[in-house]
Specification:
Residues 23-206, 235-575, 594-904 form the DUF5717 domain. This is DUF5717 domain-containing protein. It comes from Oribacterium sinus F0268. With 907 residues, this protein is an alpha+beta fold. Among the domains are: 36-134, Immunoglobulin-like; 225-453, no CATH class; 790-897, no CATH class. It contains 35 helices and 23 strands. The strands form six sheets. It has a five-stranded mixed β-sheet with strand order 2-9-8-4-6. Strands 1-3-7-5 form a four-stranded antiparallel β-sheet, with no helix packed on it. The two termini are 67 Å apart.
Length: 907
């Protein structure tokens, strides 16, 4: 037994000395036929534990245990679950406590933790259920009820201030409406605004749910440059040349000044910088042909001022066809200028014309392909409100926001993606989602865009577009998977969008279960920032690793984050793979085996009764007797159905479980466990003898119904020992009691009874049933003549016996002898037909325990022989039968013998 398997196996609860040594000690005692004098009667301070725990906090709880009868307790406590941590798993003594901590840091509002604490001790098992609920945050209920924008609109209309406060809560993002990444990104764009109420109203306005009580914004319309009347003041006698000179001196580039400059050019006025100022003052998008002298003048300029290039080139392109003299002269500098602006990412209405006319598909290289798609998808936004100073542009999937200044009511913005978010910002930093405006696309150049895509298909805008498309339709093959893995690492995507990409990637791994996938291609999953992921995301990564066969990494994560759970399919796949590896060359450490045990038990409770899981549980699991027995039952059924579960596994758990059931006094369960254990060849001598002792005690001391097949094994154990005095007395007592109830015995049983009965008689172990053995073997007359009273109680509480014979008025006490472990006996000599009242009491107050009458039946032929008692019994019989003559003769004869005996004694 010192090397017995059940003492060597590691337990989920990490058996400490109290548990292991106490079990070992009790089994050794039972094997020697020694039963403990007392079993602790435990009182637990609670029968169940229920509590509400603050959000993301931990709480410690204590359970106090006390032995009511003063018998020392020794045992273990089991707790299964990632949120509960036992401070110690073993307990002992007369009074003690078990404490544990519940940690809710990985739980959400109103999540519930349910489970049981299982106490296994020397005298029984106790289950204490627990239920803990995470306290809801003050705002959580309102936030979780915001399932659509109409509900938020209603809240804003009913309580604008209260709704604004909720809008500002840090956990507002947990509202169901933020499952939409557009809402999420818009919230991030609006929240920095100083006016929270305005931010809330604009948030709802974007989704067409503007509150009825929203503030009305005043619009200050633009006065367009062409609509303003500009009056230039000059002396009445000033000439055209003087007026132009004055305007140039003042740096006047107004429409009125432009008209003067143009007239001066047409009249060939010779003034320095006249042509340059003409172009500076020329309105944007001016398409009328200028005087030819202007074009000729600038054709001779070696270097044009930067500010006049664009209006000049634009005007040329508007008025001269390709191949004309003016066009040909400016073609090369115009193209160079267009490329330079393109590479700088510049775009407006005039540049759009330059790009469309001067940039050809064959000119585009990879560098240009990076900028051109945005330019090709640029729009001119015209505003009516001069309070708007900037336009803010982004996409729900993109992390960065771009801000563009509004000049003169116009702003050019690139919008190369669908569903982009456009906000309007004033001088105070407030942002608006709906402002009247007109939007005009500046370019439509499909060939240029196609060329850019061929050069930069998996970069920039085209990567974003393809990613958005795959997010909508899903990943269909390994090529899509590769692209999405690349997109996940794209820094411009928001964290929320990247998580959406990750979800698709992991879903593909789940869907493609069983498809060959080289482990070296799992680098993406390994490189994920696992610690930064949310619980649901971590669980998806785990499932992906499992379906791709990377059980080691999955197990590593499960140990580091034990609160993660797997669905039934993933759990089955993981255990099948991990346990098959563990049965091969791979050796798991203690932490790994404990996690596999936890998951295997979880799988078993989910009805995943796979051979590998059952095999592992039989080898490793320790829990309550009921749990372990159920595992053995299921495994036995599977074994009968030809399951591949080694018989050695049944022996392994059978030894541990049988020892535990004996330790915890689970007598009924121990019989079934013993049957399973022996069926698979269990034969540990120490454990078998311990069970025989416990079973004999239940039959003899507990007066439990016996099972013939077990009694037969006890008989064989006794029969196999030639020195009967070495056999535990309990075996002999149980067998003698069993024999006394039979009508006949086999020859070998008679032989054994004759061999061990003298040992019992020598030890004065005589009970009420002992005389029944007289029908099989001869017994002393002293046993046959007397009637035995028995009381089965407790050793620590001796009862009192009081009797009252026929004709007596009062009860008087008689001495009781403790014959064996709480069995108290007293012998009385009664004649056939004679009766005696008796009662058992306890304590100083003589509390009545039991009361009855003892009567010697006339049918009892216990008066065979010639001794005085036998003759007196026969005389009583003759008296009852009213046979006077034989009675008189026997009385005379008895009298003569008594007189003769008296004389002899006197001499």
């Amino acid at each position: 037994m010192e090397n017995s398997v059940f003492l060597e196996r590691a337990s989920c609860a990490k058996i400490k000395p109290y548990g292991e040594f106490a079990m070992r000690e009790k089994i050794n005692k039972l094997a020697r036929g020694i039963i403990e004098e007392g079993i602790p009667s435990l009182h637990f301070s609670v029968e169940k534990i229920m509590a509400v725990i603050p959000y993301r906090e931990s709480r410690t709880f204590e359970i106090f245990l006390q032995s009511v009868n003063g018998v020392a307790m020794r045992g273990l406590v089991y707790a299964k679950g990632p949120y509960l941590t036992l401070h110690k798993s073993a307990f002992g003594g007369v009074r003690t406590k078990v404490s544990f901590t519940i940690d809710t840091k990985n739980l959400g509002d109103e999540e519930e933790i349910k489970g049981e604490l299982c106490f296994v001790y020397n005298g029984g098992e106790k289950r204490i259920p627990y239920s803990f609920v995470v306290e809801k945050q003050p705002s959580a209920k309102q936030i979780h009820e915001i399932k659509d924008f109409s509900h938020l609109q209603q809240m804003a209309e009913e309580d604008r201030k209260g709704c604004s406060r909720i809008f500002d809560y840090s956990d507002f993002l947990e509202a169901p409406i933020f499952q939409d990444i557009t809402a999420l990104r818009l919230y991030e764009l609006l929240k920095p605004c100083g006016d929270r109420t305005l931010a809330l109203e604009e948030f709802l306005t974007y989704f067409s749910h503007r509150p009825k009580n929203a503030k009305k914004r005043e619009v200050l319309p633009y006065q367009r440059r062409e609509e303003r009347e500009e009056v230039l003041h000059f002396p009445e006698d000033a000439s055209l040349e003087e007026k132009i000179t004055e305007c140039i001196h003042r740096g006047d580039w107004s429409l009125s000044a432009f008209a003067l400059y143009k007239k001066g050019v047409e009249e060939n006025v010779k003034i320095t910088k006249l042509y340059e100022n003409l172009l500076y003052a020329m309105p944007m998008g001016y398409a009328e042909e200028l005087p030819k002298g202007v074009y000729l003048y600038f054709s001779y300029e070696y270097r044009l001022e930067e500010g006049i290039k664009l209006p000049l080139y634009y005007n040329i392109l508007k008025n001269f066809q390709e191949g004309s003299e003016i066009f040909s002269h400016f073609a090369r500098p115009m193209q160079d200028y267009a490329i330079s602006c393109l590479l700088q990412g510049e775009i407006n209405e005039e540049l759009a014309l330059l790009y469309s006319k001067l940039i050809l598909p064959e000119m585009i290289d990879e560098r240009m392909a990076e900028f051109l798609p945005k330019i090709l998808n640029s729009y001119l936004v015209e505003l009516e409100d001069q309070n708007i100073e900037r336009l803010v542009l982004t996409h729900p999937a993109l992390r960065r926001e771009c801000s563009f200044p509004v000049k003169g009511g116009f702003c050019t913005v690139p919008m190369p993606l669908p569903n982009m978010i456009l906000l309007f910002q004033d001088a105070l930093g407030n942002r608006y989602s709906r402002v009247p405006h007109r939007k005009t696309r500046l370019m439509e150049e499909a060939e240029l865009e196609k060329k850019c895509q061929s050069l930069s298909e998996d970069k920039g805008i085209f990567l974003i577009r393809k990613t958005l498309s795959l997010v909508e339709k899903g990943i269909s093959d390994s090529k899509d998977l590769e692209l999405m893995e690349k997109a996940f690492s794209y820094e411009d995507f928001t964290l929320y969008f990247r998580m959406k990409i990750l979800h698709l990637i992991l879903s593909y791994h789940k869907k493609a279960e069983g498809v060959e996938f080289p482990k070296e291609n799992l680098e993406f999953l390994h490189a994920l920032p696992f610690a930064a992921l949310k619980k649901e995301e971590k669980e998806d990564v785990l499932s992906a690793l499992i379906y791709r066969g990377d059980y080691d990494k999955a197990l590593e994560y499960l140990i580091a984050y034990p609160y993660l759970s797997l669905d039934k399919r993933a759990l089955e796949a993981f255990l099948e793979g991990a346990l098959s590896e563990g049965q091969g060359e791979k050796v798991y450490g203690e932490e790994e085996r404990e996690m596999l045990l936890y998951l295997s038990e979880k799988a078993f409770l989910s009805k995943l009764e796979k051979d590998s899981i059952l095999h592992f549980l039989l080898e490793e699991y320790n829990g309550t007797t009921e749990e372990m027995l159920q595992m053995m039952r299921v495994a036995d059924q599977r074994k009968q159905q030809k399951a591949k579960i080694p018989s050695s596994s049944f022996l392994n758990m059978g030894e541990r479980l049988l020892a535990q059931s004996l330790f915890t006094e689970k007598r009924k369960e121990s019989e079934e466990i013993f049957a399973l254990y022996t069926r698979y060849g269990g034969a540990d001598p120490l454990l078998l003898r311990a069970f025989f002792t416990a079973y004999s005690a239940s039959v003899f001391l507990g007066q439990k119904p016996e099972k013939e097949w077990i009694m037969q094994q006890i008989f064989e154990e006794v029969r196999g020992e030639s020195h009967k005095e070495r056999v535990p007395v309990l075996y002999l007592l149980a067998l003698s009691l069993s024999f006394s109830k039979r009508a006949e015995l086999k020859e070998e049983e008679l032989e054994e009874l004759s061999a061990f009965l003298p040992i019992l008689l020598e030890k004065s172990l005589i009970f009420s049933y002992t005389k029944e053995l007289g029908k099989f073997v001869s017994l002393p007359n002293e046993i046959l003549e007397k009637s035995v009273l028995e009381y089965h109680g407790r050793e620590e509480e001796k009862p009192f016996l009081s009797i009252r014979n026929q004709g007596e008025e009062e009860f008087h006490r008689e001495e009781l002898q403790e014959c064996y472990h709480g069995i108290y006996t007293a012998s009385f000599l009664l004649f056939p037909g004679e009766s005696m009242e008796y009662r058992f009491t306890v304590g100083k107050e003589d509390t009545l325990l039991y009361q009855s009458t003892l009567k010697k039946e006339e049918s009892e032929k216990a008066y065979i022989g010639e001794d005085a008692y036998a003759k007196l019994c026969r005389m009583c019989e003759l008296m009852t039968e009213k046979k006077a003559e034989p009675l008189l003769e026997m009385m005379e004869e008895y009298g003569k013998k008594e007189i003769a005996l008296s004389k002899l004694l006197e001499e």
